[in-house]
Structure formats: C-alpha cells, structure tokens
Amino acid sequence: MEVSPSERGPQRENPNRCVMMDSGSYGSLNYSFLYLTFLLALPYFIHYHFLPKLFIGGETVRVKKTSDLPLRFRSDGTFKILQVADMHYGSGIITSCRDVMESEFKYCSDLNTTRFLKRMIQAESPDFIAFTGDNIFGSSTNDAAESMFKAFGPAMESGLPWAAVLGNHDQESTMNREELMSFISLMDYSVSQVNPSTDDSTNPTQGGMITNIDGFGNYHLRVFGAPGSTLANSSIMNLFFLDSGDRTVYQGIRTYGWIKDSQLNWLRNVSQECQGQKQNPLHSDGFPPLAPPALVFFHIPIKEVRQLFNKGIVGQFQEGVACSIANSGVLETFLSMRDVKAVFMGHDHKNDFCGNLDGVWFCYGGGFGYHAYGSAGWPRRARIILAELQKGETSWMGVEKIKTWKRLDDEKLSKIDEQILWGLSS
User: Fold this and answer.
1) Which parts pass through the membrane (predicted)?
2) Which pTM value belongs to this model?
3) Helical pair 330-337 and 261-275, crossing angle rounded to 10 deg
4) Core vs surface per residue 355-388: b (16+ CB within 10 A) or e
5) Phi then psi dihedrals of residue 200, to 5 deg
6) How far apart are CA 46 and CA 108, in angstroms?
7) First-to-last CA distance in the chain?
8) Residue 292: pLDDT above 50?
C-alpha cells in the first residue's frame, strides 16, 4: 500500500545525498564571478591601457588652472601690472644670448630671461602680467609649444593672471598666429583670448566669438573695484589688447603690420559700452561717476611715435621707430574714445621711453629677453604700471592716478624713470 508524504511524518535529510542546483543558480554564480573579475581587472586596464593615451609630450592632459577672477584692485586700492616686452625665447639652455658683455656670453642663454622674469615677479608682486609680443623667437625653435611653455613658465608657476599679444616673430616656428593665440588662451592662468567674445559687441559671430575682425589676439579685460568697496561690482579700469600683425605688403611695399579698421571699430564700440555703464547713485559717496580709464597693449608702435624724438620723453630713444608705412588712424581713434590714458608696446628693444601724443602716453617696455637684440652693457629691463584708487569718505572709489617705472636686470633690480602718466588732477 502506498503511503502519502503527509502520512510518513517528518523525514531526516540524508547528509550524503547530493543536492542538485537548477540552471538559474548556476547563472547567478557565473555573473557574480564575472563581475568580481571585472572589478579586479579594471584598475589594471586603466593603468596600462587608458592612461598612456592621456599623455601629450610627456605631460598628463588636465584641466586648465585659473586664477581668482575677475581682475580687481587690491584692498589697499592698488592694481599693479608687469609689462614684459620681447622675450624672444628660443629653445632654452641651448639658445645663446645676443648683445651681452663678452664676459657674460659663455654662460648666458634663455635661462637668463627666465631668471629675470622670476626676479621681477618676486620683487614687484604684480597683480597681472602683460606680455606685449615677440614672446618667442620662432626661427630659434622647432617646437613653438615647447618654447611657449618655457617662456611663460614663471607666469604660470606664479599663479597670477596673465595675458599676451603676438609680435612679428612668434609665428615663425610651427604654429600660425591663430594657433598660437588659441594655445596661449588655454595655458594655466592665462586670461588671453583668441578674439573678442560676443559679450563685447553685437557683431556677427561664430561660436561666441566675433569673426569679422582682423588678426588674432584682440580682446578686452575689465578690472573691478576693491573688495568691499561701493564699486566692487563695477568695472573701473579697462585693458585692451590688439594684434598689430607681423609683416605684409602695402601698396607694393613690404612693411610691418598695423592695426586695422575692423579692430578700431570694435575698440570704439566696446569703449562706448564701458563708458555708458551705470553706477548706483545711492552709492556715489559724493563723487560724480567718471568714465573708467583705459590702457592699451600691442606690439608694433604707430607712426606718430616718431614725432617724440627730441621731445619731452622719460627714458631713452636709442633707435628708429620700426613701424608700418600704413596709417589707419589709431591715434585719432584713441583721442576720440577719450578714455585711453596710456599705450604700452614693444618691438624696438633699445627704446624704453614714455612720450605724450596729444594727451595719450605711449610707452615702450624696453628689451626684456636675452636672445633679443640690445646693447652690450645696457641691462635688460621691464616696465611696471601702477593704478591707484581715489579714497572716498567711506570707501575706495574710481581710479585716481596711473604711474609707471622700469626695473633693470642688474644686481639690485634698479628702479628708474618713475613718472605719473595720468591723474584726476592732471
């Protein structure tokens, strides 16, 4: 007679009986094993197969480092700019110096330029560095990118915001002018731009950048008021950067480049926008709103600078002004804008003077780089620009004064030719 399971009562499990698993259980184990293997293998795969592809020239690709922005005056009411003109950087230690004393020549190289830049940053503690062209000497390097990394290295190491324009020699290596400015704009702490952004104009654009403008490296930077002041959120000084070109042919004659009409039209438009910015009348501190002063930076001087020979200049006029035979009306544009107080340029290394043309100061930086031509026994030099704010009853106000001086690359970093370029009382 067959007994049903319920009638048999509780049964004891045979410890020696094999337990059969269904296919679903096997599948779960297989997936678990594969997942564990994947997790263990992932670090190995990333390290040996993926990371090597993130190296370019031995450097790991990483996000660009940026300074605290926007540019603004210090809490003590000052804003200091270091102008570096004509580094002419080549390939580093293998690039020899030009026009130095015979006793200095044997051990002199691009590294002297690097050392000078580091000394200037340490001595002056600038808020901003402006490189005014011929940053590298293209014919002395077969790798423009490597040369720029070395040339701008001290600026990037300092963590200070910096900007650059091109001269007439930068593009003579492995990059054209557009590629150079694009590369510079992506370097650590650089606030350089390839060309103006749409924020500064309503001109036709492509990808947020103005396209109907000549050259590369035309842009505008605003400097805001001191922290905690009533103008902390207002732009109280403007910095304009312009591409003065390299070499070209004008009316059948080979000449240096110049600033074109399209650039000047953009400049006028931005200047009008800046002068039209509104200040809060409730926080005027008793002072009427003033148009923010503007400073302009480019490489090749304009023709009118020749008129300053034997005039009331501060500094030395030691060589002819090498400029374009074309005249697009740069000075007239600056005068019509009424906010340009001073212009800073390079190109002529043995000139380091400031001279006044109809109320606008034009200042040479003086030759900075050791691979650039100069005069033996005439020290390389750099220019400092210092803007100071007006003190209101309760707060720092707008710019009151703009001063400048130079430092020589001698034992003491001698300070020379200090002068006031502009002031509210002038």
Assistant:
1) 29-46
2) 0.83
3) 10
4) bebeebbbbbbbbbbbbbebeeebbbbbbbbbbb
5) -100, 0
6) 45
7) 126
8) yes
77-90 burial: b if 16+ Cβ within 10 Å, else e: bbbbbbbbbbbbbb
Strand partners, 184: none
Q: Tokens in use for 235?
A: 């732009």
- How do the domains of the chain map onto residue ranges? 72-279+290-423
CATH of 72-279+290-423, one of 3.40.50.300, 3.40.190.150, 3.60.21.10, 3.40.50.1000: 3.60.21.10
State how far the Cα of 72 lies from the Cα of 389, in Å rounded to an integer: 11
62 φ/ψ angles, rounded to the nearest 5 degrees: -150, 170
Distance, in Å, from the CA atom of 382 to the CA atom of 80, rounded to the nearest integer, reads 13
Model pLDDT, residue 200 = 56
What pLDDT, in 10s, does the model give residues 310-322?
889 999 999 999 9
Pairing of strands 71-72, 294-297: unpaired
Q: What is the DSSP letter of 50?
A: I
Alpha-carbon gap, residue 291 to 424, rounded angstroms: 11
Distances (CA, A) of 92 to 87, 150, 174, 342: 12, 7, 16, 33
Kindly tell me if the per-residue pLDDT of 387 is higher than 70: yes
Using DSSP bridges, classify how beta strands 253-256 and 247-250 pair: parallel, antiparallel or unpaired.
antiparallel
Cα separation values, 275 from 234, 296, 360, Å: 12, 16, 18
Task: Kindly provide the residue ranges of all beta strands, DSSP E only, lying in 117-206, ordered along the sequence.
Answer: 128-132, 162-165, 205-206
**pLDDT at position 17 over 50:** no
- Cα angle vertex 157, ends 171, 232, to 5°? 95
Give residues with Cβ within 8 angstroms of 345, minimum separation 6.
85, 132, 244, 297, 298, 299, 300, 301, 362, 363, 364, 365
Helix, strand, or coil (residue 282): helix
From the list 126, 106, 122, the residue with the least C-alpha distance to 114 is 122
Q: What percent of the chain has pLDDT over 70?
A: 81
Confidence of residue 30 (pLDDT cuts 50, 70, 90): low
Strand partners, 255: 248
What is the three-class DSSP state of 261?
helix
Q: How would you class 166 by CB atoms within 10 Å of its CB: exposed for 0-12, middle for 13-18, buried for 19 or more?
A: buried
pLDDT (tens digit per residue) in 204-243: 334 467 778 999 999 999 999 999 999 999 999 999 999 9
